[in-house]
Amino acid sequence: MARFGTWAPLASNWASQPRMSQVDIISLHTMVGSLPVVDGMFRRNGFGGTFSHFGIGGNGECTQWQDTAYRAAANYNGNWHIISVECADVGAPFPAWNTNDGSAVPAFSDAQIETLAKLIATIAPAHNIPISLIPDAKPGRRGIGYHRQGVPGYMVAGAEQWSTAQGKVCPGNRRIAQIPQVIARAQQILNGDSDLDANQAQQLDYVYTVLKGGNPSMDVLSVLYHALLDPLNSATHHGNDSDNPLGHAVSAHKYAKQVVDTLAKTAGTASPAVNVDAASVASSLAGNSQFLDALADALAVKLGNRLSNG
């Protein structure tokens, strides 16, 4: 039903496999291997072994092994309604790690975060799956999840079992901590904010959170517009630049650095996991056509009002 990445089914009889009864969840896994190695293993066993719908390499490359209308075999009792995504954790760009130590699973690479977000932004709407994190593996959940939620030793009482391996950490603590970032990026892509990469999107989210306390009713671009433009109420605020939308946009770009620098100093340790790079955020704004278009439109209205009022 839905395709993403490179279509490379494990066998020619992929459409004769059992169909999904319904589609409720996209479940994220870690491979404990590289994409080429895991791809080879899946192909040796074909549809008779364990396999997932998708595989994502360390550099963001994606292979689709099965159509999302048909079942994969990576979530045990949940295969009837779960789309599974395996993510590489061995080989470039990851550091060497002890694959027998579940606590050592490395974080998703930036490229994997971006591909995961794009995959979710493509596949979830195709199946009407909410782009939000499910809290556990209990029946009836719909959204984005991860394998460990259905693993014995971690699953909550009444949860659907997604593995026979007691205590399996998949996809690992570092990767689980990154899933909210993946989801936020997928939501931004769906909202048309696809000019930003995962790091820039995370920084913009941080600015948004500090400015408005995470108020979900305000779009991040609206918040940034007001944060950058409200202080710019003088006809000469941009020096020798002409008093027009372009001049305002240039000033907003320059002022962005001051805004973010101030936030970084006043926020303290509110978000220690995010390294706020003011120059990067300013560049993000300057290159974000949606932001600049909204900025220019709003400024055109303001300037029109100023002219009509003499």
Structural class: alpha/beta
Tally of separate helices: 8
Radius of gyration: 23 Å
**Widest sheet: strand ordering:** 1-4-3-5-2-6
Termini separation: 60 Å
Q: Tell me, what's the shape? A: globular
Quantity of strands, as a count: 6
Just name the CATH architecture of the largest domain: 3-Layer(aba) Sandwich
Name of the CATH homologous superfamily of the largest domain = Peptidoglycan recognition protein-like
Please give the largest β-sheet. 6 strands, mixed
What oligomeric state is this?
A: single chain
Mean pLDDT, to the nearest integer, reads 78
Beta fraction of the residues? 5-15%
- When the domains are counted, the total is 2
Say what the CATH topology of the largest domain is.
Lysozyme-like
Unreliable stretches: 211-221, 231-250, 266-278
Query: Could you spell the SSE succession in H and E letters?
Result: EEHEEEHEHHHHHH
CATH top level assignment of the largest domain: Alpha Beta
**Helical proportion, percent range:** 25-40%
